Each structure stands twice: as C-alpha cells, then as structure tokens.
Amino acid sequence: MFKRFSLIAMAVVLMAALALAGCGQKEAQKTTEESDVIKIGVYEPMTGASAAGGQMTVEGIELANEMYPEVLGKKIQLVIVDNKTDKTEAANAVARLIEKDKVSVIIGSYGSSLSMSGGQVAKDAGVPVVGCSPTNPLVTLDNDYYFRVCFIDPFQGKVMAKYAYETLKAKTAAIIMDISNDYSVGLSNFFKKAFIEYTGDEKSIVAEMNYKTGDQDFTAQLTTIKELKPDVVFAPGNYGESALLIKQARELGIDSKFLGGDTWEAPEFIEIGGDAVEGVAFSTHYTEEAPVTEVSEEFLNAYKNKYGGKEANAFAALGFDAYLVARDAIERAGSADPKAIRDALSQTKDFKGATGIITLDENGDANKSAVIKKVEGGKFVFVSVVEPE
C-alpha cells in the first residue's frame, strides 16, 4: 500500500515538473518572440470630445507602420491605448504602456492637456514621447523626454493675429476661450499679445470671455460680442463647442469674422456648424495643395490608397511624421533602449517628413511653417503658407 502511494506521489511530482518545464519553455519562447519586436506605444483620444482628432492621428500612425514596419531588423509593434479625452486616463495610459507593455518609445497625444498629463509619467519612467499635435509650450517645458513634430502656440497665435490684422484689416478683436482647455487658454494669450503688437493699441482686444468643455449654451458671451461688434472673434477650442458657438453667433445676427486654431480641422466641425462656419479661418499644419517634401506626396498617395480617396488631413500627416521620427531615432540609436532613443531624438535634424523639414530644438520643439485654411463650400480650402520669422 505504501509502495503504491509512493508511485502515485512520484507520478504527480513528475507531471508537475513537466508542467513547470512546459511553462518555462513557453516563457522562454515568449521572451524570444518579444525580443524580435520593438514596441511603440500610442496614447490618443479614440473616444470623448477629441475622438475625431485622435482617430485621424492614429490613421497616419498606422499608415506609417504599414509602410515602414521594421527597424534594426525587427518588426515594429504598435500598442494603441485610448486615453478617452481625459487627463487621468491619459496618465494611466502612459503608465500602462510603460509598465505592462514595456514599450521603447511613445507617440501622442492629440490635445495639450492630455499630453501634459502623460508627460510627467513618461519623464519619471525615463521613456521618450513624440507628440503629434500638442501645441502648448508647457508640453515640453522641463521635460527632456517629450518631443513633438508640430509647431507651437506662440507661433500659431502670431500667425492668426497677423492674418487678422494684415489680411482681414481687423482693428479690434474679441476672444472666447475654453478655460478648462490648456490649448485654448495658451493659444488665446499668444493671439492677444501678438494682435496688440500689430495694432499698437492696448484696447484693440475689446473682450475676453470664457466657457468650459461640454458647455452647450453660449448666449451670455455672444450677447456681449454682439454689443461690442469686434472685427474678428478668436475662439480656439474643441471643434464641437467651437462649431456650436459660431452657429449660435450667426443665429444672434453676429457677423464678425471667426478665427481659430488647428483643432478646427475635423469633418465634424463642418457637420456641426453647417452654413454658419462658412468663411471662418484657422491655422493648421499641412495641406495637400502645397506639399513641402517628397515625403508629403508619398504620404498623400498612400493615404488616399488606404482610405479610399478620403481627403488627407493635418493630424494624420502629423501622426505619420511622429512615427517616422520615432523610428528614425531607434535606427540612429541602434537600440530599443528608451534612454538611447531619447538621446537620438534630441539630435533630430533636417528630417524630411510629410508636414515639412523637422529639426527639434533644445526644448524638443519643431520649428516649422504654418498653413492657413478657411471653410468654403462645405470644405476646408487652402489659403496660404506662413513661414516662421
């Protein structure tokens, strides 16, 4: 009886050992497989108020990944996480990409507020991030692990102030900003400073008013605008609230010209605003009417092939560029080590992207031209290119 029990016990031990060996083999196999890929994390708003912007950006990133799927002889694996247009979710998304998915570099995010939330997490972990379209200067301030391929708001604000003063001959302006949105607040302040410099008149800004993301009724702000009759109204913000604000302005009989920033370039802006947004102008990063490099045309043709003739947009182009810049840094670093990639990113110079020639300065910011577009006939129409001074 004792002998029989011993045999059974030995069999159980042997089976357990074999099982453990199998697990170990699987783990070893898994490790080998993981070493054959280099992971790039992406955190973008795929849902929430900025979903359209995030989805357009991811279109460009996925396109670039399809065209350039390898680096250092290894496959590049994208790990995409939805930050839900929420600051806390953005920080959580970056933490997950670093701790769980073990990515080497991260791309994102549409929205300066979301980028700043994720930025500190990436900095603390020592993992570099390449931003696509976060234009607020604070995104890269005191964060030597954050870079971006877009221009920044001091330039964007000046571009629109110059357009208002020189092209539209505006002498007065009102500002309506989303105070819960760092992008809107920052860009409004830079527009204000530049517009006063152009006009030479401290009183040329006749009003500054606020709202918050999610607001639906702008009657109080617009009633003041109607009384003051400014030549232009600068109202950068999420495309949804901005389109609704302009629609209500026209319903109140306000005929001032409305100006905004790059977030307006989303099909939903025209869908919500309808005829009311005809004639509004905004600054953006890319136009197919004025390709800057051979990569611009390469992107444009590939985008139309992949997305069935759909018109290419600035955010897809920036996502495309962010992926290529990250891949280029991995290649120059000769390693998937985040610190080595960060060091290579900081040396990025004269990189030919779809949106222009990208050189990252000492702050990790790209010094690039801006494009002005307006809404005409229910479409975004190219107006001009403005070079940095």
From TrEMBL:
Domain Leucine-binding protein intervals: 38-378
Span of the signal peptide: 1-21
Keyword set, alphabetical order: Signal
PROSITE patterns: PROKAR_LIPOPROTEIN
Similarity comment text for this entry: Belongs to the leucine-binding protein family.
Protein's name according to its UniProt entry: Leucine-, isoleucine-, valine-, threonine-, and alanine-binding protein
Species, as recorded: Koleobacter methoxysyntrophicus
Upper lineage: Bacteria, Bacillati, Bacillota, Clostridia, Koleobacterales
